[in-house]
Amino acid sequence: MSRIRLALIPLFLLIAAAGVFALRNASASVPEAPEALPTATPTATPAPTATTAPTATPTATVEPTATPTPTQTLISLPVTNGTPVPDLPYEVITAENVHRLREIARYGYPRLLDETPYRLTADGKTIVVGTTAGIEFYDALTQAKNGGFEVEFLRAFDMSPDGRFILTRAGDTLTVWRQDGQKVREFALEAGDAWALNAVALSPDGSLLAVQRPRGQVVEPDRVDVYRVEDGSLVDTVRGMGAQFSPDGKYLATVFDASVRLYPVAELGTGWEKRLPGETLPWCGEDTCGLVFSTDGTLAAVVRAARVDVYQVETRKLVRQVSGWEEARYKVPLVSFTKDNQLVLIVTANPDFGWKFGVTNPYASAILVNISSGEWISEVPAPEGFVYPSEKEILMFSWKPEGEMPYFDNPVFLIDNKDVKIAEGVGNELWTCGVDGCKKETLDTSVSLDENLTQYRIEKHENHWAVISPNGNQIVSFTSPTDEINVLIFNGNVAVVYFQQSLMSVFVKAFRTDGKQTVISGDYARIVCYRYPYLVFEVFFEKAIKVLNLEDWTVQKFNTNWTPVGMDNSKLFFANHDWQNPSVWVWDLSSKEKYSMPVQDWKIGRTGETSASSILLPYSELLFVDSSGFVFVFDLRTRKYLGEFIFSHPAPVEKFVVSDDGRLLMSFAYDGFIRVWAVVPEDAPVR
């Protein structure tokens, strides 16, 4: 696949049990030294003169040398960058053994978290960074890395003001850690997605954990449960949405009835579920809003898109109101206080970010304001990265991974003989990632890749485009009203996708190997999948999907509100996101049969989507359906739901691929990692 000049296409064209096994080594037996046989005395020969019988010389016994038992080296899984997939006798993935599916390899590089990836300790000395691989610590002055620990599937984190305790939200667990990476306690709790403040919060001394209740529960969702970290017991339940502790440990803040409610921490445990505290701060109703405390907890900033109000917490008195920058609707500035609480730093949102092509920085300006006088001490363009105050100057920190994993749109996977590769042509750049990391090649023209990673040149001429095969032959010529195109090649067939902004429509020009062609169009549409001989096209405004069969050249249209997630062997897979009856539907285009299989619930991840992709495994008829990084597994032979695995939550799995023998499953997600999964024999030398 090739991407050429991506502007609005990404908005509408998203082309679409671990265990520890010990080796059972039988101890080699060492043969004992054989017993010395008794030496027979020879019979004397009669003679006229008696002869003294000779003394028998005993036969010396040679002790055999014991053969040492070889120590077998155990393989630590998953292997990472630079180490190929271990050569083990993996089992074909089936319904009987899928519960033993485990991650055996992980390649790629972490990415920053979406939810507040940077924090600064109250003393201004340490920057704490959250990535999709875990927590990292940096010296705020030298910006040198000075520690960290791994947290797989990390989604968000909170910390005590001094950084001694870290709270992580990863997969389906909440964990409190010490700064050195030692676990204090793990909670098997599901946190709700709070529209105000944070879904989870940790008290400054690390003793209390506040958790937003999930909205899917029958009980009222506007409740926050508070747990004691020491023993995991429930301390109290307070009313409100979201949670945040003040740095001095005096208050737990939630939002309820258009106000910030400040619950006295010292009074938690006295039954707050049916009553409200008298201490409140103003909130901003339906508008997007934020709350930030000063480092000592005496001040609180209520942050709106175009204004920041600073209050004294104890008196709830407004002490400073700051405004005057260009408003970015639905985006609030980042706000932080200096450690002496005399200045406030406001990093304003960029109103063009996410809307205009080429705008990569989500922030516009960094403004340092004196709280007492209201004077703007400085205003500078906000650099990309983390902006933080130090005395009377503004500093910037930008986290960099060890290597770059590009944001693929629709990469091509290859998993053959345990060779793992993922690649995509982006304009005239060819990205290839695998065991040894990622490499980028700059070519003299745009390229597209087929399912075998074969390169096809995409050439633009004066009045047409051409697709050129590796042997130099032109296989397709086409015209397009825009340069914003995607070229897909599969089984020698070509599909050209382009977005025409004047019509707000997506068009697909499909070309068969024999030269036959057709056009499919739709308002606000996307390619769901292309798996020969089918190309599946979702049209949002029509609430329908269109399926092109490249063999008989027919287009079928299905009217449905369900989300198509994939197709294989004439079976079309849908996700029904009805929260009352969540399910996966299978439509067989050949037999015209359709049936559903219920799931427990759909997960919501970093993109707000609940499902992105699927794959049907050969031999076993197992269907894997992504749900924001949780993967549901179904047996199509029995039409039963088998369970779920965490593959990459909260990052959705963008694509799956399975090896031809059905033994290795590969996934790629927006957390920056390629993962390889397999059923490892129970007696394999792994740990």
What does this structure look like?
The protein starts with a strand and ends in an 8-residue tail after the last strand. It has one helix and 55 strands. The strands form 13 sheets. Strands 1, 29, 30, 31, 32, 37, 38, 39 and 40 form a nine-stranded mixed beta sheet that branches. Helices cover 1% and strands 45% of the residues. Among the domains are: 2-16 and 404-679, YVTN repeat-like/Quinoprotein amine dehydrogenase (Methylamine Dehydrogenase, Chain H, 7 Propeller); 288-400, Methylamine Dehydrogenase, Chain H (7 Propeller). The protein is mainly β and 687 residues long. Residues 31-71 have a biased composition (Low complexity).
Summarize the structure.
Residues 1-22 form the signal peptide. Among the domains are: 2-16 and 404-679, 7 Propeller (Methylamine Dehydrogenase, Chain H), CATH 2.130.10.10; 288-400, Methylamine Dehydrogenase, Chain H, CATH 2.130.10.
List the helices and strands and how they pair.
Layout: E1 2-4, H1 9-12, E2 101-108, E3 118-120, E4 126-131, E5 134-139, E6 145-150, E7 154-159, E8 165-170, E9 173-178, E10 183-187, E11 200-202, E12 208-212, E13 223-228, E14 234-239, E15 241-245, E16 251-256, E17 259-264, E18 280-282, E19 290-293, E20 299-303, E21 307-312, E22 318-323, E23 334-337, E24 343-349, E25 363-370, E26 376-381, E27 386-390, E28 393-397, E29 412-416, E30 419-426, E31 429-434, E32 437-442, E33 446-449, E34 455-460, E35 465-468, E36 474-478, E37 485-490, E38 493-500, E39 505-511, E40 517-523, E41 525-531, E42 534-539, E43 544-549, E44 554-559, E45 563-568, E46 571-576, E47 583-588, E48 594-598, E49 614-616, E50 622-627, E51 630-635, E52 640-646, E53 653-658, E54 665-669, E55 673-679
Parallel strand pairs: 1-30
Antiparallel strand pairs: 1-37, 2-55, 3-4, 4-5, 5-6, 7-8, 8-9, 9-10, 11-12, 12-13, 13-14, 15-16, 16-17, 17-18, 19-20, 20-21, 21-22, 23-24, 24-25, 25-26, 27-28, 29-30, 30-31, 31-32, 33-34, 34-35, 35-36, 37-38, 38-39, 39-40, 41-42, 42-43, 43-44, 45-46, 46-47, 47-48, 49-50, 50-51, 51-52, 53-54, ...
